[in-house]
Amino acid sequence: MKQRIVAGNWKMNTLMHEASRLVEEVQQEVDARVIPSHIDIVVCPPFPWISDTAVRLSGNHGTHGSKKASVIRCGAQDCHHEVFGAFTGDVSAPMLVDVGCRDVIVGHSERRQFHGETNELIARKITAALRAGLRPIVCIGESSDERARGRTTEVVSEQIDELITYAGAEALNASVVAYEPLWAIGTGVAATTGQAQEVHALIRSRLTAHGAPDTPILYGGSVNATNAADYFACSEIDGALVGGAALSSTTFLAIINAACTAWSE
Predict the structure, then answer these.
(1) Are strands 176-179 and 39-44 parallel, antiparallel or unpaired?
(2) 203: closest CA among 174, 160, 242?
(3) What is the pLDDT of residues 127-136, one digit of tens each?
(4) In 10 A of CB 17, how many CB atoms?
(5) pTM of the model
(6) Do 160 and 199 contact (CB within 8 A), yes or no?
(7) For the chain, is the Cβ count within 10 Å smaller at the N or the C terminus?
(8) What residues are annotated to the active site?
(9) At what angle do helices 193-209 and 152-167 cross, to 10 degrees?
(10) Maximal C-alpha separation, the chain
């Protein structure tokens, strides 16, 4: 069965009590139903709340710590490419594993834009994550200017090709790719299903040509409770990387429900 994924990226949002309430509300609803084993639910809180979130999801939270472990996976929003060292303010992949993470987002457009991350650096993070036992969720996508100039195919293909050059096809085959058009992130202007399907087909073709045919490909960019089902009906879309809509348990649960309905078998 093809693996499907709904991941929530909280970015630099929530205070501790808000994060605790959010994960508790999502966990209660998700664990009260049967989620198909081929659908992974992931939450990626800010670094300070990862440990508490992971403990809650493990079932060890509270006085007695006797709750059943949740099916929800805890992820992180980034990791460093080295294991340990003098890198003030950074967090390594083994540290994330040690506090209960199973997934990590790498190469998000905001990291590329505001921190100058290159495909080579992102590839090193992919390698570091896999070595530590984390599943990388690797973000790629074009800007509004690049799309306007008809360079979407060129830009996306170059990103995939360079990531495979530096990390290897095997690494990408063990990862998840998230297509996030920069012009749709946090803007409320989501890609049409036709636009998303077209780029996802391109990504699938490039990955397959490089020997990475099994990589799940997610769509990210203003995914919400209203449009999620339409995206999930697309043959080349294997899930969603959700931003703002993941900060509300109501909307995130609606997206999860749409995934379960679309991929019940």
Answers:
(1) unpaired
(2) 160
(3) 999 999 999 9
(4) 8
(5) 0.96
(6) no
(7) C
(8) 108, 180
(9) 40
(10) 59
Of the pLDDT bands very low, low, confident and very high (cuts 50, 70, 90), residue 65 is low
Residues near 253 by Cβ (< 8 Å), separated by ≥ 6?
Answer: 26, 29, 30
What is the residue type of 46?
A: P
Say which DSSP state 210 is in.
Answer: T
Task: Check residue 65 and report its DSSP letter.
Answer: -
Residue type, 86: A
Label residues 221-233 b or e (16+ Cβ within 10 Å = b).
bbbbbebbeebbe
Spatial CA neighbour of 30 closest among 208, 261, 256, 263: 256
- In tens, the pLDDT along 134-191 reads 999 999 999 999 999 999 999 999 999 999 999 999 999 999 999 999 888 878 788 9
- Examine the pLDDT at 63 and tell me if it is beyond 80: no
| DSSP code string of 163-192 | HHHHH-HHHHHTSEEEE--GGGTTTS-PPP
DSSP string, 40-55: EEEEE--HHHHHHHHH
pLDDT digits (tens, 9 = 90+) for 68-79: 899 999 999 999
Say if domain 4-262 classifies as CATH 3.20.20.70. Answer: yes
Cβ atoms of 256 and 41 within 8 Å: the answer is yes
Question: What length does the chain have?
Answer: 265
> pLDDT (tens digit, 9 = 90+) per residue, 193-234?
999 999 999 999 999 999 999 999 999 999 999 999 999 999
Q: What is the 3-state secondary structure (H, E, C) of 231-245?
A: HHCCCCCCEEEECHH
